[in-house]
Design brief:
Number of strands: 9
CATH class of the largest domain: Mainly Alpha
Keywords: Cytoplasm, Histidine metabolism, Lyase
Shape: elongated
Structural class: mainly alpha
EC number: 4.3.1.3
Enzyme class: lyase
Subcellular location: Cytoplasm
Catalytic activity: L-histidine = trans-urocanate + NH4(+)
Oligomer: single chain
């Protein structure tokens, strides 16, 4: 496995994709270690002076006025970790935990957290050895960062709790041995630095961002296929129309639709004698709706990239002056709002896809056989597949309710406004799965519609999509169990087969 030097504060989205996959052994760029060592020395000097400094020689939260004696500082950090390990629910998946480890190490290595070099190297050792702490997914309100989940992550460094190695759950002490580590004793400030921070909510949101990009790409390609299946017009995708609106996402997406439909024999066959003046919105307004979704995805990506590179623990140590300043960088509002906007984009992508399915099965709108099957009545065709799509779209509408508007004060009103960022981010992957399955049903329906136009053919790019599906799923000649077909189409989309197509047609479609 290749060696990869992390440059804290300079990570790219492309690098974060690799970090999720665990494709390299990580280390910190050597130039960053002097700042780390200087900030750790600044904390040691603050302890020596005995001046009150939050979390270094005081209690936490509402107990910040309680002074802790120097001989109790190690115990203070241990108690902090244990008392905050109150998470519940299913464990975070391996990829997310891997990214959390990398983000936490990179944040601490910026030299503003006052931790020792060996602590950062221990986090990287866990990542490199594939020793992934078992982290419950519930219990954080995104206030002083992701306290509960990060406490469970930190427990592993102490030899407590459980870890996963290649999917096998073992005691943390065994995991440390596998990584070549001994249980750590945390120095002043280190437990607080590990627990404060937005790395869990950020990792969850970044993982969902990448899923949302793939689902978005699939929906654009499938939407173009639906245009041809319904004998729709490509005139609404004219660049002059988009230019008069001026929205960047709209213009970019319209260009993709034009290129996907270019050369379609189906479109050419009805270009002259088509009596329809306008297509329904689910076909005609795809650039406007999907372009707006793309703008949200891009903006969320920019916010989350900034957060991935940020220092978000508290207090912060400024090694040049020796100051220790208590601030609020742990408040995860930027992540919460980015996750909420991603939720809107994901839900709208699925909602528009569901409307196109409804159009395709409606003979009065599509001109295709009712429910996309020969001998309707005897066969129900795609009638119930559309019901599944409607159920998933409706579920996403509930999940898309903004999490960030719900603040419930904690810590005896010391933390009197919280972000709910962890839930805001955590609900995104299930939403992506719902939308991908809606698009999978649309892909099946659109391909069925294309079959009815034979011997006319769609464009070359869309022919390739149609062929890829038909290699997995046969056309529907008569009723059969469509759940199997939906699962196959869903797996095809989950393989990210359509993402490169959109990336090739629009290289700038997502920030790196």
């Amino acid at each position: 496995m290749a060696e990869w030097h992390l440059r804290p504060g300079h990570l790219t989205l492309s690098e974060l994709r690799h970090l999720l996959a665990g494709r390299a052994r990580l280390s910190i760029e050597p130039a960053f270690w002097p700042a780390v060592e200087a900030s750790a020395a600044a904390v040691a000097a603050a302890v020596e002076r005995g001046e009150p400094a939050y979390g270094i020689n005081t209690g936490f939260g509402k107990l910040a006025k309680v002074h802790i004696a120097n001989d109790q500082l190690e115990r203070l950090q241990l108690n902090l970790v244990r008392s905050h390990a109150v998470g519940v629910g299913e464990w975070l998946d391996d990829a997310t935990v891997r990214l959390v480890l990398a983000l936490k190490a990179a944040s601490l290595a910026r030299g503003a957290s006052g931790v020792r070099r060996e602590l950062i190297e221990a986090l990287l050792a866990l990542y490199n050895a594939g020793v992934l702490p078992c982290v419950p997914s519930q219990g954080s309100v995104g206030a002083s960062g992701d306290l509960a989940p990060l406490a469970h992550l930190t427990l592993a460094l102490l030899g407590e709790g459980e870890v996963r190695i290649d999917g096998r759950v073992v005691p943390a002490a065994e995991g440390l041995r596998h990584a070549g580590l001994e249980p750590m004793a945390l120095a002043a400030k280190e437990g607080l630095a590990l627990l404060n921070g937005t790395q869990v909510s950020t990792a969850l949101a970044i993982r969902a961002l990448f899923e949302a990009e793939d689902v978005f790409a699939a929906a654009v390609v499938t939407g173009a296929l639906s245009v041809d299946a319904a004998r729709g017009s490509d005139a609404p995708f004219d660049p002059r129309v988009q230019a008069l609106r001026g929205q960047p996402g709209q213009s970019d997406v319209a260009a993709v639709y034009r290129r996907l439909l270019d050369g379609s024999g189906i479109r050419a066959s009805h270009r002259v004698n088509d009596e329809r003046v306008q297509d329904p919105y689910s076909l005609r307004c795809q650039p406007q709706v999907m372009g707006a979704c793309l703008d949200l995805i891009r903006n969320a990506g920019r916010t989350l990239l900034i957060e991935a590179n940020a220092v978000t623990d508290n207090p912060l140590v400024f090694e040049d002056s020796g100051e220790v300043i208590s601030g609020g960088n742990f408040h995860a509002e930027p992540v919460a709002l980015a996750a909420d906007t991603l939720a809107l984009a994901i839900a709208e992508t699925g909602a528009l896809s569901e409307r196109r399915i409804a159009l395709l099965i409606d003979a009065t709108l599509s001109g295709l056989p009712p429910f996309l099957v020969r001998e309707p009545g005897l066969n129900s065709g795609f009638m119930m597949a559309h019901v599944t799509a409607a159920a998933l779209a409706s579920e996403n509408k509930s999940l898309a309710h903004p999490a960030s508007v719900d603040s419930l004060p904690t810590s005896a009103n010391q933390e009197d406004h919280v972000s709910m960022a962890t839930f805001a981010a955590r609900r995104l992957l299930p939403m992506c799965a719902n939308t991908r399955r809606i698009v999978a049903i649309e892909l099946l329906a659109a391909a069925q519609g294309i079959d009815f136009h034979a011997p006319l053919q769609t464009s070359e790019p869309l022919q390739a999509v149609h062929l890829a599906l038909r290699e997995q799923v046969a056309a529907l000649d008569e009723d059969r169990v469509l759940a199997t077909d939906i699962a196959a189409a869903d797996a095809l989309l989950a393989s990210e087969i359509l993402t490169p197509m959109v990336a090739d047609l629009l290289p700038s479609w997502r920030p790196e």
